[in-house]
Amino acid sequence: MSDGVLAPEAVARRAHANGVTLWALTDHDILDGIPVARAEARALGMRFVAGFEISVTWAGHTVHIVGLNVDDTHAGLVDGLSAIRSGRSERAREMGGRLDRVIGAAGSYQGALDYASNPALISRTHFARWLVDQGYARNMQVVFTRYLGDGCPAHVPMQWSSLEQAVGWILQAGGRAVIAHPGRYTYTPMQFDALFEQFRELGGEGIEVVTGSHTPDQYREYADVARRYGFLASCGSDFHSPREARLDLGKLPPLPADLTPVWHDWQ
Ligand code: AMP
Ligand code: MN
Predict the structure, then answer these.
(1) Could you say which of 59, 193, 220, 237 is the most buried, measured as most Cβ atoms within 10 Å of its Cβ?
(2) pLDDT tens-digit readout, 141-191
(3) Residue 187 in 3-state DSSP?
(4) 167 - beta bridge partners?
(5) Strand, coil or helix: what is 243?
(6) 55 lines ligand 1 (CB under 6 A)
């Protein structure tokens, strides 16, 4: 729906085939895929959790926050997400212009747009796929290191929502807020502490410990963070496409046994 390649039904079937018994769909900035995902999960006999992922600007960098077990029809949440989606189109045009200059070509914007099933949700992932398929980069990682990552020549800084707003929407909609893939952020240790403290004060409860975006060393590092801050632990595949996934759905290692999973009290 957002920047994944498979339709929600196909993701559900893949998860189930890989042995998943409790599954959350977490598109970026949108809840439209939830009803279909829920229906398919139920038909397969998998427990389903309605979720999404939202970008937050904190101390000048982007942090992703996952909302889990939300009421996907909650008006405040639906409207909030719709408002933050609105900046993506303009940013993508600007990103396309910069990329054209950097790679000495034309048509980056249109190229990326062709990969976005919902044009309102055009993201760096769509640009990255286009660049790889056109032969401008060997893989997605190279795209982010060379062109689209923070501070790279075609990176367009974006003012996303505030941490307060994002956690607020999640709580209002009855959900649980989780810091996504903390190992991807480039904060100093002091900034990380401030982020975790502030997140907890706002009512944030969880942190991703095991995710397709972490190395095994990072599983251990963020398990320690969960212990220190009393966070619930989450496990997210960060699965976008069979070709791009480091770890497939259902193939992640278990959470350390002493941590409390974010889903521990969900029926
Ligand atoms: P955007 O919301 O447009 O800023 O794009 C963010 C998306 O880009 C993330 O959800 C990831 O899927 C992808 N992304 C960001 N950084 C990386 C990276 N270093 N390697 C691969 N994908 C990345
Ligand atoms: Mn993310």
Answers:
(1) 237
(2) 999 999 999 899 999 999 999 999 999 999 999 999 999 999 999 999 999
(3) coil
(4) none
(5) coil
(6) yes
Q: Which of 89, 92, 215 shows the shortest CA–CA distance to 148?
A: 92
pLDDT tens sequence across 107-138 = 999 999 999 999 999 999 999 999 999 999 99
pLDDT-based confidence at 55, cuts 50/70/90?
Answer: very high
Q: Can you tell me which atom of ligand 1 is nearest the CA of 238?
A: 12
- What stretch of H or E contains 68? strand 61-68
DSSP labels, 1-61:
--S-SS-HHHHHHHHHHTT-SEEEEEEES--TTHHHHHHHHHHHT-EEEEEEEEEEEETTE
Cα angle 204, 176, 165; round to 5? 60
Give distance in angstroms: CA of 116 to centre of ligand 1: 14
Tell me if 144 CB under 6 Å of ligand 1: yes
Closest-CA residue to 216 (of 185, 187, 254, 189): 254
Q: Token digits for 10?
A: 């196909």
Alpha carbons 220 and 216: distance in angstroms, whole number:
7
On whether the CB atoms of residues 135 and 42 are closer than 8 A, the answer is no
Distances (CA, A) of 60 to 115, 118, 163, 174: 28, 27, 12, 28
